[in-house]
Design brief:
The protein contains one helix and eight strands; from the N terminus they run E-E-E-E-E-E-E-E-H. It is mostly beta strands and 148 residues long. Strands 2-7-4-5-6 form a five-stranded antiparallel β-sheet, with no helix packed on it. It has a three-stranded antiparallel β-sheet with strand order 1-8-3, with no helix packed on it. A hairpin with an 8-residue loop joins strand 5 and strand 6. The longest helix is centred in the last third of the chain and has 13 residues.
């Protein structure tokens, strides 16, 4: 089963996407992540949208792939004289999560809002997988997931 989530984030904004279930027996994996400006023709846009396993106290445009809580990152960059994005990059990890995730947006050139669209594959987890995934998500623990 595929679940979709979408929204608009203001510059410096953060959304919580509720994924957790009572027993944690449903896991989710990102299969598609896209962003686009609210008004794509605006001038000089440089947006960074990231998905995390835990709520962020600081929202910025720094991308650190060694951060165990970072699940995905998308960048949209457009200069003043271009009608379309000059740079668009989307990178996401295939990790399975069963707790809430957080989407953040930082616009470093101006302060325009940004749309996001996420597709996640729902995966049934047995007791052992659910326990492992929950503990890993809550601790921010990174090690190879044997249930991928």
């Amino acid at each position: 089963m595929i679940k979709t989530f979408r929204g608009i984030l203001a510059d410096g904004g953060q959304d919580r996407i509720s994924l957790k279930t009572r027993k944690g027996k449903v896991g989710y994996r990102i299969i598609k992540f896209q962003i686009i400006q609210v008004e794509p023709g605006q001038q000089a846009v440089e947006s960074t949208v990231k998905i995390y396993k835990q709520k962020q106290s600081t929202i910025d445009n720094t991308v650190n792939f060694t951060d165990p809580n970072l699940l995905a990152c998308a960048i949209w960059q457009k200069s003043d004289n271009s009608a379309y994005a000059l740079t668009e990059a989307v990178i996401f990890d295939g990790q399975i999560v069963n707790q809430d995730i957080y989407v953040t947006h930082e616009e470093s050139d101006n302060s325009y809002p940004c749309n996001y669209y996420i597709e996640m594959e729902a995966i049934h987890l047995d007791d052992k997988s659910a326990e492992y995934t929950t503990i890993k998500d809550l601790r921010g623990y990174t090690q190879m997931n044997p249930w991928r």
